[in-house]
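User: I'm writing a tutorial on reading structure tokens. Could you give me a worked example: one chain, its sequence, then its tokens, then a sentence or two explaining what the tokens reveal?
Assistant: Sure. Here is the example chain.
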Amino acid sequence: MADNAIGTYIGNYVIYHMGSASSATSTLTIVGGLASVIGFAIAGFIADKIGRKWTISTGLSITVIALLIMCFVAPSSAQTADGYNKLPSLLFAVWAIKGFGMALVHNCSFPMVVELSSSKTIGKFTGFYYAASMSAQTVTPVLLGLVFRLSRAWQALPVYSTILFALSCAVFTLLVKNIKAKKLENVKGLEALGSDD
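And here are its predicted structure tokens:
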């Protein structure tokens, strides 16, 4: 829910809260994408050292820190030639950190579901995994819309996502088992970019 919220509404946040041109969202996406490429490339190596659970927990923690910083990024007073506010440099750093952190999560999450299930339960747990993911993407715009309506502030976006990422990190770190089964090898380097999750 946290990642879907920030991804869905970042364009509106850039335009209406930051007062920047809509094209600035594309630049943020490129910065986050480049950082996630690095994250995907090294996530397998990290998972080999500390395990998938702790790689995911690390990715979630990094993302929480990034979005916590985003809560305090104010619109810039500097303007572009078109009269829009320049997007603060700190927001680009936040987006890069978030992209890297979420790459660690995405690279290890589905393989961990496979690792935690048996041959008899793999279908059931794969179904739960995707049902949870799709439900989150359905619920988030509605729930965040209510938050926006009540708060009347675009600043609610990073606060909402930070809270949900922090809850996700806490639940995952405290409740999910860390097992060392090797049902699936961790993909590494450029292989990680072409893998399905």
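What the tokens reveal: The mean pLDDT is 90. The helical segments are 2-17, 23-50, 52-70, 89-116, 122-151, 156-175.
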